[in-house]
Automatic annotation (TrEMBL), chains A, B:
Domain Nudix hydrolase residues, every copy: 11-142
Taxonomy, superkingdom: Bacteria
Protein name: DNA mismatch repair protein MutT
Classification via PROSITE patterns: NUDIX
Amino acid sequence: MARIDYKHHDKILLAVDCIIFGFDGSGLKALLVKRGLEPEMGKWSLMGGFANKEEGIDQAAARILVQLTGMDKIYMEQLHCFGDVDRDPGGRVVSIAYFALIKIEESNGETLDLHNAKWFDLKKLPTMIFDHKQMVRLAKERLQQKVANHPIGFELLPNKFTLQQLQGLYEAVYETSFDKRNFTRKILSLGILQRLDEKEKESSKKGAFYYVFDKKKYKQLESEGIKMI
Amino acid sequence: MARIDYKHHDKILLAVDCIIFGFDGSGLKALLVKRGLEPEMGKWSLMGGFANKEEGIDQAAARILVQLTGMDKIYMEQLHCFGDVDRDPGGRVVSIAYFALIKIEESNGETLDLHNAKWFDLKKLPTMIFDHKQMVRLAKERLQQKVANHPIGFELLPNKFTLQQLQGLYEAVYETSFDKRNFTRKILSLGILQRLDEKEKESSKKGAFYYVFDKKKYKQLESEGIKMI
DNA sequence: TATTTTAAGTGTAGTTTGTACATTTATTTT
DNA sequence: AAAATAAATGTACAAACTACACTTAAAATA
């Protein structure tokens, strides 16, 4: 056994970085901040911070997310741990990446400004520090996988949304387009959407019905993921 | 930004724990060791160790795997990072879990004995230290997901194997049974198996053809996962 | 040499799911 | 009343999945 005793082993700086996804109706977006310390101060970066000794890593990630967005109860899951020796030129830092899905229209613009945060289209990301681009890439892949089997896409939409918005979201996530009839049929056949009597009338004269995600129905169906796409 | 500067932040012990899967023809197995240090000395544990400051975490995981099995070029991927504050009563240790797939019949019994290692049927795991049972559970779930879309099941079988062995493996991974005709048809239709002229004649008078996984054909098909099951 | 035994190997029909594709409908504006 | 706009909807064909049982090759035995 290598782990002979706990003292006499290297302790390492542990960071948490958050890939924060949003959807504005057109494309998938990521929230980046201007880094406030050396090295690479002023460059674009994922929102991050160091994990404290007295907090769990999930708590650290949640704390950092709240710091930036002011929002809690955000969908977040651990992505991957990045631990190459030279990933951070400032020192040996192992970073645990999390990705979060937020309702972009509920985010607080002032709080974001305070942190020099900005939404970037995923297809037009700026140069980012360290291995952050790799993190975003992996997060996007994971999002694609996850969205295919779990009803998490709704985390990126307003509470009530039209079928076209939902389709637009899936199209953004997969960078493809779907046939409207087939998409509608499939998504409704899942039985996890509830149609409201209310219509969205901005973008059409006829108006499109709003739907909400029916969490109860989903839980009834199966707690272990259903095929969304 | 929370990450104001690199000094003045907590450094934390970083461990790596390996879930090592094997398949012996009947059930899926995990390789456990008797823990050699306090706390919980003598209890069953995943093979683990501390990450050193001068090595990447993937390297640390590979090192630990070689230590136990003497084997390298093993299929291994990162599973998840476990970082609850109290997960290890011996101190604040964040553990990065990896899972590995090994050909059980190629493992060196003597090396395993040296480390007090033993193969356990996944359905009959002993009490394990800390959150190791949770790690194994998550690893099994991940294996199920991964095996469905990636040709990694072969890592658990001898280089040449019969279709029945392969089916047995999938049945063990998913804890279910498949129809032999449908399974055979589907797996062969992928076009990634090559039939040898040689037959396995131990378990039948007719003999069953050996197959090998054809990595080249697989790479040709697509580098991004095909549907295995 | 014929028969038995064993597990391997194979085919078909029915159902479900996926895909491609165009017209009708509700409402507002002119 | 007509035109304009985007929403809502159906059908036919193809592909994939599922359920299900007999034939075959080879060795062992009579």
